[in-house]
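From the shared-data thread, chain only:
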Amino acid sequence: MSKEAGLPESDRFEDAPHPREQLALFGHEKAERELLDAYRRNRMPQAVILGGPEGIGKATLAWRLARFLLAHPDPASREVQEAQSLAVPAENPAARHVATLALADIFLLRRGWNDKSKRHYTEIRIDDVREIIQALHRGSGTGGWRIAIVDCADDLNRSSANALLKLIEEPPERALFLLIAHQPGRILPTIRSRCRRLALEPMQAGEVAAAVKSLGPTWERLPDALVGEAAERARGSVQEALRLLDNDGVAFDRVLQSLFDRLPQVDWSAVHALSDRLSGRENESAYETFMRALFRFLDARVRAQAGQGAGALIGYADAWTEIGAAARETEIFNFDKKALVVSIFQRLERAARG
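Structure, as tokens:
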């Protein structure tokens, strides 16, 4: 929940600290070192895209950089020149201010809350960007950094993206834009051309498990074996591991994986049972778990066949595109999820048979 407005935050996983509250960073030492070196040499870019799969620590790194810059506004200072990382102690005022969003020179752009639907908007609207523009140009007058974090840039629509582009082109003095992107290729080319791009890799399973255990007593008390299995299945994403650890998600993921592993053979009775399980508004969480497992499977198949030439890829690549379009259509028009699930396995069967 938002500490200021009491509303759910679109960039927070339930029961876990927000990335701005997480002081530890697991993995991504190379990207952290690049950012520290750029700042130390007074060559911090105006805008940075932190790209990579969802939940791998991009936002945690963005907030870590923001804390460091706010704590050490002079890149020539001895503290910066001798720093080994972007870590800032919890007792530092910058850490407290960032955690509570209580600093006038730090700004967060994300999907807002829709009071009418009692859900988050599906995209970042142009009005959200306009608010950030006004706030950035006001600033606090301290002469320090003004840092805007976009979480995530994938949620920008064309109007809001163009408004953000104009802001990046004509920024206030000492402004830094940190754009978190799960799919950097979807960002407007004109924005990408004005940003330094850092590609973050999925975390190792051991790093994922350690990150989960660091999130507080709720997660620390979980059995190591269960956390380890979730970390292995999460393909480098802490957020995905947290989802798998919620509501018997690991056991459900095992069931889904067994269906995928049988391809091109399909257990149609199990598929129809699955489609029943995923239908209905009360089963949205299970449906989302299924869709994430599905796209992890497709990603793994495409990667595994990447070295076998375009012919080996085309079946699964086409399936990925068609399934994604069908899922979006189902969501927009509230179509029957049972029919979607059955059609997905029909399409996977054709792809697996080549």
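Strands lie at 47-51, 106-109, 113-114, 119-120, 146-151, 175-181, 196-199.
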